[in-house]
Every structure is written in structure tokens, then in C-alpha cells.
Amino acid sequence: MNFSLIPAIDLRDGNVVRLRQGDYSQQTSYQVDPLRLALDYAAAGAQWLHVVDLDGARGGTLANFRLIEALAGTALQVQAGGGVRGEDDLQRLFDAGVARVVLGSVAIREPGRVIAWLDRYGPERLVIALDTREEGGAWRLPSAGWTHSEAPTLDELAPRYAAAGAVHVLCTDIHRDGMLSGPNLALYAYLRALAPALRIQASGGVRDLDDVRAVRAAGLAGVVLGRSLLEGRLSLRDALAC
């Protein structure tokens, strides 16, 4: 299995930011142009870019669409999400050049609808985002930029999507996102046992090369890298080389 290193750009009001544990009130802004950053990642050897429209995720609209379109026009293959609530949004991103659309809130709230999209567009074009937070002994799946609680759990939806033919799943441990506390390898082992056929992208907590190696050794398909790259704690060139 090929292993992908996927740098991330989170957008809010057109700016590159990171949130702590998905909390919109705990934002760090980075004084860098998003397009320039994407080009730097491409020059370092990245093939994919993960883009999150944080305004869209919370508000339910494609708030940073024009910027996502520009990023999709680079040499990088872009997987983007945040604000996709209907098929019109999905098609709009595909038309803009996005290679894979990341489905979060709609995948949690309306799995039947998303399974129909898997059939229509094919599993290679969609990433199911099962971002999760442990609450009361269960892995819950909050929506709307992780601000709303939902009824389904990871245990329910991961096997359902695998059975429906989904291939790509992004899973963030929300408690570790933006915290540089290391990836939750136990969570990913649990998810692999739930749905062995899924190609899992790990997200949240990655600090350094040792963390990248640990995620790869755990049998995952890839890892999304955010704060560690933005703050220079991890070199993308070094990570790709290892």
C-alpha cells in the first residue's frame, strides 16, 4: 500500500489558520499566503493537498470557494471539504478541479445520501470524514465544524461505509487536533478492526518524523500534516524522504 503525506491548509476568512481541538475561539493565524504555501509544498515534493474551509464547515456554505479553486489549479491534487451539504456543492468543487471532495457533516447526518454519491461518482472521488471525539466510552461524530453533537457513532458508520464501497476515510481525533500531542494509534487500530477495507488517513497530533513513521507502521494509508509543518517542527522534504 502506498503511503501518502498530505500537507493541510485550513482556511478562515481567506487566511491560513489552525484551531486547537476544533475550537473556533482558539485560533492561531499564520502570516502566509495560502497559494504561496501550496506552491512551497509542491516544490518540496508533495503530491496532495488537504484543504478545509472552516467557515464553510460551521456555516454550511462554500465560503472560501474561490481560494479553493485557485489551490486546485496548482500542480497539487487537492482534496477539499467544509460546507458541502448537497450535490450542487459537490459538483461545484469537482468543476473547480478538486480531485476528491471531503464529506463530513453530510456523511454523518445523511449516510444514505452519501452512499448514493459513492455509487454515482465513484469511491476514488470522495473522502468520508469520520472525525471523532471520545465521550462516555463511545467514539462520537460531531458535525458542523465539530460544533454539533450527532447520534451516530464511529462503530455504526465506519462498517456501513465500508460495506457500501467507500475507500478513503479521514479520521481525526478531535482532542489531539492542533495539540502536537502525537497521533492516537489506538484509535486507528480500533478503526482498522472495525472496517479493514478502508484506506485511513490519520489526522491530529503529529509532531515529528517519529510520529510519521509510527502512523505508516500502523498500516494506515496516509497522514495529514498541519501545525507541525506550519511551525517548522517537521520538514516536509525530510518526511517525504523517510
TrEMBL record:
Enzyme type, top EC level: isomerase
Catalytic activity: 1-(5-phospho-beta-D-ribosyl)-5-[(5-phospho-beta-D-ribosylamino)methylideneamino]imidazole-4-carboxamide = 5-[(5-phospho-1-deoxy-D-ribulos-1-ylimino)methylamino]-1-(5-phospho-beta-D-ribosyl)imidazole-4-carboxamide
SUPFAM superfamilies xref list: Ribulose-phoshate binding barrel
The protein's Enzyme Commission number: 5.3.1.16
Transmembrane segments annotated in the record for this chain: none
GO MF, one annotated term: isomerase activity
Keywords: Amino-acid biosynthesis, Cytoplasm, Histidine biosynthesis, Isomerase
Annotated CDD domains: HisA
Record pathway: Amino-acid biosynthesis; L-histidine biosynthesis; L-histidine from 5-phospho-alpha-D-ribose 1-diphosphate: step 4/9
A Pfam family of this chain: His_biosynth
Recorded superkingdom: Bacteria
Compartment(s) where it occurs, according to its Swiss-Prot or TrEMBL record: Cytoplasm
Family: Belongs to the HisA/HisF family.
Protein name per UniProt: 1-(5-phosphoribosyl)-5-[(5-phosphoribosylamino)methylideneamino] imidazole-4-carboxamide isomerase
Organism listed in the record: Tahibacter harae
